[in-house]
Amino acid sequence: MKNEAVVDERTGLIWLRYANAFDGFMDWNTAFNQIARMNRDRVQGQDERRVPEIRKLESLTGKYCHSPALPMDHSFTNIKKFRWSATTSQYDTGYAWVLYTKGGPVEIGHKPLPEFFCGRLRVLIPTLERAMKLIADNLRITRSDIRRALQRLDPKPVQALVKSCEARGAWAIDVNTGPLGKQAAPGMRFFMEAVQAVTDLPLLIDTANPDAMAAGVKAVENPVILNGFSLEPRKLEQILPLAREYDADIVGFLLYPDSRVPADAAQRFEVAMDLMEAAEAAGVAKERVIIDPVIPPLAWADGIVQARHVLEVIRTLPDLLGFPVKTIGGISNLGTNATDRAARLVIEQSYIAMLASAGLSFALLDILNPDLVKAARVSGILAEETLFSWGMVS
Prior knowledge:
By secondary structure, this protein is of the alpha/beta class. 36% of the residues lie in helices and 17% in strands. Helix 6 links the parallel strand 9 and strand 10 (224-229). Helix 5 packs parallel to helix 6, helix 9 packs across helix 10 and helix 11 (341-358) runs parallel beside helix 12. The chain starts with a strand and ends in an 11-residue tail after the last helix.
């Protein structure tokens, strides 16, 4: 980790080495508002800071340690005596739990009073990285404004959309260019240059054209994920090797070589094994492969059953493959051809909660839809193994 971070290897938590998020005392609500502002503004490129729950604060203390009540070899600086937690008292909701860092006891503080300091927990890292990350799928060539931008080589519409996605909290941007035809290389360079000029977020190069994918990975400077490959021979021969050459993560679709979708979980497991064998044969580390189990449109004859199989695959793959494999799913697939937007939203909100519970790593979704995004974020909270606080819901 960089020097500004302290990793607690016992709990898997990352803390900021500088122990105070802000100088001076503050009340409980101000602490949350300040942390929310830092996340919204992506201060230092981070948007996952939190006011820590009281059990997480207590996990830092050392037995028989005093002034401060931290292990002798701790690496924190600027330690203050009193620290707010995100945990509300169950006896009186006007109070929240506080850690006294001098001796280590926990007490309660009256929320409206500016009597305590605020620390910050940057991000949780459970063993399987259960916190689901949200990837914006809004930048796609099927949009008329994006097609016109490409035709005119005008980056402004592309950049305006990317800025909006980042402002709404996207972890990454999926750049869905389509095949791009005969102008694959210059077209892909246009998109990569336009996007990375306005964001440092990771980018997914989303195309089935090997020439376009190669041009994209050569032009990109941001962290990149190749999206993606399958058992289709052309993709195995021309797209998968790019992950090895450029040391990049790559999405692997659970599809048969003729692009058919497996009928059930068992067939998906077989394809996943074949996909991993193909990656290993190509010199791509298994940890680099992000599995897409292919979320089906519910309009398919077996769409509902297939959707349940996808959940089973996500839950079972880590045990089947013997390591914490990452998974990704396109939420918009579920409502393909839906005419009732309200009904589609309800279905997507419900299913994304199920995906989060199953352990999905990355959700591709409409990041500009605030109702769907809120459902995704709340679902992520419910998937965590931590002490709940209403302050986590915003």
